[in-house]
Specification:
The protein has 353 residues and is an alpha/beta fold. It is built from 11 helices and 13 strands. The strands form 3 sheets. The protein has an 8-stranded mixed sheet with strand order 2-9-8-7-6-3-4-5, sandwiched between helices. Strand 3, helix 4 and strand 4 form a beta-alpha-beta unit. The model has no long low-confidence stretch (mean pLDDT 95).
Amino acid sequence: MNSISELKGPSVFIGKQGNGIISFGSGQPDLPPPVDVINNLHIRNDLRYGSIQGEEILRDNLSKQYPKSEADNFVITNGASEALDLIFRAMDNGKVLVPKPYYYSYPFILKRAGMTPVYTELKKGRIDLDDFNKKIKGCKAVLINSPSNPTGRIESLETLKEIEEITEKLGIHVVSDEVYKDIIYERDNYLIKGKQVITVNSFSKTYAMCGIRVGYLWSANREFVDRVIDIKTHTSMNTNLVGQDMAIEAMKAPQSYIDHQLKIWLRRRDLIYNGLKDLGLDLWKPEGAFYVFPRVEDPEGFVWNLYKKYKVITYLGEWFGSPKRVRLSYALDEKEIEEGLNKMELCLGRTRS
């Protein structure tokens, strides 16, 4: 990059690594997957097309995590992104209420599926039910993400339960993107319930397996699941069979694997949150996921100078619908976080208190 004008989207940074670069950019765990994912990997001899819906053994294992659920309630997808794409294409046009700031791909996925995003502004990083209720009228679906990328905030149980009631009364879908459901610091995950609910998840964040691209969607509505399968039949067909085998092995990991990862994320959260606060930046304390979303003066200048002068990657808040902020992922080890904070100190011309 030779000019600040090239900061048009996260693609300018994705994949950049090495040569002394410290990346607070892409949200991908640097922690290892469960040991058996690698140790028990045996490439199958039969690599013909698999089931469009996904391998039954994987779907059956997933069904044990969802009350009153069966394998046929799931579709295995190429990551959570394909799940979202299929869901909204299966809805066949309409408005979708999206909290803002949002994950940067949401508007693109919705528009390319023929849907129209309508934004409800967050209040202190969480859904404002007053604004939510004003803007939900006329929408076909609501898309929520708790814990949130980019804010790191979780919605209160009261808010999630009220969303259940509101959407059930109006008869509209709730699409719940729960890819960070196992990375929550304050409480256990709350699984949204209801016939109109569609849940999205993946093996990327919980099990540190971003690159295998295995996700899934769940719905109690079998007719909706069938519509998704029909679309997938004519687009990507089956999801990677070897990746699904790895996902099956990942699900055998003990709870202690997830608990250990969570302790690491919590230490990193405290390190980066306190470091940014000591630099005088205004930000919400993350309650889940692995992101911080501080407010900075001249975000473009900050992101550009930090990268060009100090080889530190951060993402513009503008890409997430919040132009006065920047997003940092703390999916990197504590030494790199500390070094990155030192370089931010130099870039901002400030001394940590």
